[in-house]
TrEMBL record:
Protein residues bound to heme c 2: 104, 123, 126-127
Alphabetical list of Gene3D superfamilies matching this protein: Flavocytochrome C3, Chain A
GO MF annotation list: metal ion binding
Source organism (scientific name): Shimia isoporae
Record-given protein name: Periplasmic nitrate reductase, electron transfer subunit
Length: 146
């Protein structure tokens, strides 16, 4: 009995999925990501390079600072965080790097820690490398003066 129910459920699923695909094809809503024919050569836009000429200014209060260097080969996982080799308060002075904010050394209850809090361990959750790339969409944002 259970086997028959599973087979019926799978058959219904296949019918629904194939029906959805047919409707999408007929409506003209599905298009290829490739702009030309399959045998045409695809030319891609110029790759935007990271701007290392200086630091970008922040656009709003409490905005996490942008990273002014490449982090392409940095290990940031549960076992290691290479950002801390330069930016931890114990190393930043010797390396000439900005020190992490003291908020990175507070736990959820606000207790001061000697090491970076687990909630702040993954730097690239908030911090991204700065790049001088064109905007994807128009933006008329102006930062607050307050």
């Amino acid at each position: 009995m259970k086997k028959q129910n599973i087979i019926s459920l799978l058959a219904a699923f296949v019918v629904v999925i194939s029906g959805t695909f047919v409707v999408a094809q007929q409506s003209g809503g599905v298009s290829a990501l490739r702009p030309g024919e399959i045998d045409e050569v695809n030319y891609i836009d110029e790759v935007q390079k990271q701007d290392t000429s200086g630091r970008f200014s922040r656009n709003y209060r409490q905005q996490p600072p942008l990273i002014p260097h490449s982090i392409a080969q940095y290990q940031i996982d549960l076992n290691a965080n290479q950002c801390l080799q330069c930016h931890d308060w114990t190393n930043a002075g010797d390396r000439g790097a900005p020190t992490l904010s003291m908020t990175h050394y507070l736990d959820r209850e606000g207790n001061q820690l000697d090491a970076v809090a687990g909630t702040r361990w993954f730097c690239n959750q908030c911090h991204v490398p700065q790049a001088n790339s064109p905007a994807l969409v128009d933006n008329d944002f102006t930062p607050s003066s307050n």
